[in-house]
């Protein structure tokens, strides 16, 4: 390659970068960080909010752990919805969320799932024959030490006294949606995911729901970040707890925990 | 000095990276030779295809592997029916995932050194009666040894750091597919693991530096030997 051609291609790269820059520079939007399992429901709610108010919101979804660490290092976000209490507490201890705006927004359940065409029948009870139902296959779960969906599942299996039999058969996925894919593709004969994930995938069926007393309560807390200054942040938070949002959350399989906002009562 | 988890993750990583590099080397040399020495319809397409893992997000590559090599996949179902082999959830599967991710780097390095080989030397060997295979084995291969070495080191290093395709294709199973990167990611997902994370970080850096240093010494020795023989 000669020098002129090298220079030309470098110029092209620079041009493309410059053209893409305005997209990045669109600041001043309302930015929300939300746990990955909320994607379907929150996308619907954001669209409806935009229809009703004409205002836009940008929502970034990934594992709560990653979002919390990004907020810790100063990500410009206004609102955080975590999939567990632990990561919200992590930010609260560091004064990175506004404590008076914090509330428990949603509840969820964990379920045992199988590929749609599987004929495994099991009912969840103490000592139920989970290991033999796997028949040498793997049990797909989110990471059982760190990702909320995995830790809840591990707690439930412990409580039911079957964890020791299946521990070595667990395939730990990066997040709960990745565990869902493994069952949906029938790579794993059984898996543990949220009820809301199972409802979102037509290729899996729910075998049974884990009793709520077998694991810590599955709670999605919400709070404005300490840096939140956007004029629409508080109104979007209120909208999340409105009746309109409630029906969308419930349609996706969530339990709505706080129907009315508690505003500055303390 | 090392915790059981660290020893297990380290040995899994070394096993995966080793198999991945050794198993992909013959294919890497063959593809590099095709791209450097021949022209055929679809050569550009092959070149682009080989380089896809550099461009695609690793998680997507892992998902494609799941579609192809999974128990229900196009190739995977055949492997399972014909040989009873499953790659999903195994360390061999992890080696395939990292081999695919590292393949473009290996091919590129070998191809560059193939392109710089003096054709006169190969022609001379021909006139002295060597067949095409003989020429390749006794003239070309020794001349591109530095390229093969560089390609293998790059591929090995890339394999050691592979995470996205691995976790998607074979997930994270202690003792089977829990590599250093997998262990690292899992630790980073829970609060309060800062010390364990730093320990893994130090281990990773030490391995990388030792390996790259060893490779540098080896490469220098190979280069010196080639210079020596061509002068003689």
Query: Which structural class is indicated by helix and strand composition of chain B?
Result: mainly alpha
Strand order of the largest sheet of chain A: 2-1-3-10-4-11
The Cα radius of gyration of chain A reads: 22 Å
Strand share of the residues of chain B? under 5%
Radius of gyration of chain B equals 20 Å
Helix content of chain A: 40-55%
- Strand portion of chain A: 15-25%
Low-pLDDT segments, ≥5 res of chain B:
none
Distance between the termini of chain A: 70 Å
Architecture blueprint of SSEs:
The complex is a heterodimer of chains A (266) and B (232).
Chain A lengths: L2 H23 L4 E6 L3 H15 L3 E6 L1 H9 L6 E3 L3 H9 L9 E5 L2 E6 L14 H5 L4 E4 L5 H12 L3 H4 L3 E4 L2 H9 L5 E5 H6 L3 E6 L9 E6 L8 H8 L2 H9 L3 E2 L10
Parallel strand pairs in A: 1-2, 1-3, 6-7, 6-8
Antiparallel strand pairs in A: 3-10, 4-10, 4-11, 5-8, 5-9
Chain B lengths: L3 H34 L5 H13 L2 H12 L4 H10 L7 H25 L3 H9 L4 H12 L1 H17 L2 H7 L9 H9 L5 H38 L1
Helix pairs in contact in B: 1-5, 1-8, 1-10, 2-5, 3-9, 5-8, 5-9, 6-7, 8-11, 10-11
Descriptive keywords:
heterodimer; A: 266 residues; alpha/beta; six-stranded mixed beta sheet; five-stranded mixed beta sheet; 20% strand; globular; disordered C terminus; B: 232 residues; mainly alpha; 11 helices; 80% helix; 0% strand
